[in-house]
Protein: Alanine dehydrogenase
Organism: Solirubrum puertoriconensis
Amino acid sequence: MIIGVPKEIKNNENRVGVTPAGVAEFRKSGHTVYVQTGAGEGSGFSDADYEQAGAMLLPTIADVYGQAEMIVKVKEPIQEEYQLIREGQLLFTYFHFASSEELTHAMIERKATCLAYETVELPNRSLPLLVPMSEVAGRMAPQEGAKYLEKPLKGRGILLGGVPGVRPANVLILGGGVVGTNAAKVAAGFGAQVTIMDISLNRLRELDDIMPKNVVTQYSNDYNIRAAIKEADLIIGAVLIPGAKAPHLVTRDMLKDMKPGAVVVDVAVDQGGCIETCTPTTHENPTFIIDDVVHYCVANMPGAVPYTSTLALTNATLPYAIKLANLGWREACLRDASLRLGLNVVNGEVVYKGVAEAWGLPLTNVSKILEHAHA
Ligand SMILES: NC(=O)c1ccc[n+]([C@@H]2O[C@H](COP(=O)([O-])OP(=O)(O)OC[C@H]3O[C@@H](n4cnc5c(N)ncnc54)[C@H](O)[C@@H]3O)[C@@H](O)[C@H]2O)c1
């Protein structure tokens, strides 16, 4: 198969869909890989790295789309890319169709086949191509929190780990899933005193088993949260209710009970945030202050560490991309039910229920398309 790796052109996106190691894997299976010049620069991979791995470089994004049967990238195509997409071309990337009607209609018009990272789903309902970004954001959260607790950045001026004779900072983590667990590990490693709250007792049991001594678990309810925020130096928001907006666990009126200079890092801001006063910010302007509480609410935290994020993402996406290249998307999706759930649009027809419902579009039965192809 001919694979194309364009340079991401969305504002501030430095990740790349395939690394030189990924190119080498495709080449081993006999595929051709075209990479746009400079595509890996933002993540620390040079054109020479790609060439050595066996890729062929192309100067423009139009060349890459023009040649490729399958495009592997990171973010959804943006307007400038729409007209480059050819009928039946396979796009394997994040789409988040339910948040963009324009993108959905563009992919239908172009008659593209769109396999979305975010809806590839394992039988245990976990989302293997979203987990790596939660791991990155979770581990970044205490690091960003520690930074903004510094006085010159308007924080309380407390060192997360303390020193001998001085108590460490109190870190409260709301939600003990992927983000929360990774945040707890790093905060505990810094030496902070960490509390994780969740509504799943089973999850709290697991965390209690695996976490070090400076991490305690507590059931998440309004009473416990109100008491804990008074003591917290850093609050990390890491709650997720699948398919719904995050609940506002820390409300506007609760900020006055917090310590002046305390910091909130609301990782869940991409789902509306679990701290009511959080609204999305950017890496250029990551924080704002309300009631003396520093709010860090960057919606794409992994974007700040593109080297790590690219490797983490491609470790997870590459095996699927190789399968798609080896078998073609129809056969790959027939054999792998997780991958099949990634199909959102096939040749311009919407096949994912959530997308059809979001924009009132007709839903085509994906099994019929696949069976038909098989016959
Ligand atoms: N800002 C970013 O850059 C970024 C990056 C990655 C992920 N995220 C977001 O981080 C959030 C968390 O993602 P995740 O992968 O950890 O999800 P997850 O499903 O692994 O974990 C969510 C946890 O929240 C718990 N929860 C639900 N209701 C709760 C409540 N009322 N109180 C306490 N806990 C509660 C669940 O039991 C679960 O354990 C998501 O909104 C995700 O989109 C943001």
In short: DSSP finds 14 helices and 15 strands in the chain.
